[in-house]
Amino acid sequence: AKSEGKSTYHFFEPALDQQARERRQTELDMRSALRDGDFELHYQPLYSIAEDRFTGFEALLRWNHPERGRISPLDFIPLAEETGLILPIGEWVIREACRQAAEWPEDVSVAVNISPKQFTYAGLTNTILQALSSTGLAASRLELEITESIFIADVEKTLSTLHNLRSLGVRIALDDFGTGYSSLSYLRSFPFDKVKIDRSFVEDLGQGGNSHAVVRAITTLADALGMDTLAEGVEIDEQLEVLKQEGCRNIQGYLFSKPMAASDVAELFENSASV
Ligand code: C2E
Ligand code: CA
Ligand code: CA
Ligand code: CA
């Protein structure tokens, strides 16, 4: 019986072992990536319907792994968050985004994703202040995207962090709205500048589901609270039409552009300046 137990144990162990090894390796690789400059930011345009132009770009992290090639943020951000590596990585993202955005026209802003661990990190305000002052980017041109997961934390603390950040002059967007712990009442209680309607609602617009009603409810409430609205993941004209009709103010998605390299953003501005 003893040997049987032992063999069962051995049967399961290698798989667990291997998973742990892979995670450990990815963690080491993330450290090397930071050191070797293997991270890169791509930028996806944020289109304003009223202004009929790109008023900003969302910075999206890309990892060019020397052996594994391009790795999606969905495949390493969770581990970075767990291990705490998201703090140095996120700091790099903030600095890099500010540095590149400082080269853009002054009426164009940059949006940066802030993970839950970064949001609760006491040094975040300082990181942002330093990035702004060293790059010369105006605080009003930086937007922070925060997800609904911040609502599970202590309400008082979340509120005070939000107020601290806003007092720097940066704007705050609530990302992926409608997917997580959200309730419409959070919008009333927290000082967001913008609400980003999650792609899942946009996806089935025009297909007769109830997303249309959800989008209407969100834009109506955001309007009443003086918050800006943006719909994520807009891929086809039909979605754009419904969103316009419902008064959504900004659009992001493949319909306009996929995320692009920083050099392509610069080129976009050069070309439009020469017209
Ligand atoms: P997100 O913040 O919701 O970013 C939007 C994601 O949707 C991006 O995926 C973008 O490429 C994708 N997308 C944009 N338009 C469309 C569309 O029309 N159709 C479809 N199907 N997808 C579209 P990406 O770049 O793979 O990023 C995935 C997630 O990784 C982001 O979701 C965000 O949660 C996280 N992430 C990316 N960069 C960072 C970062 O610098 N820091 C942190 N903490 N998270 C990041
Ligand atoms: Ca985002
Ligand atoms: Ca989002
Ligand atoms: Ca999303």
Automatic annotation (TrEMBL):
Residue ranges annotated for the EAL domain, each copy included: 23-273
Range of the intact protein held here: 489 to 763 of 769
Domain of life assignment: Bacteria
Name of the protein: EAL domain-containing protein
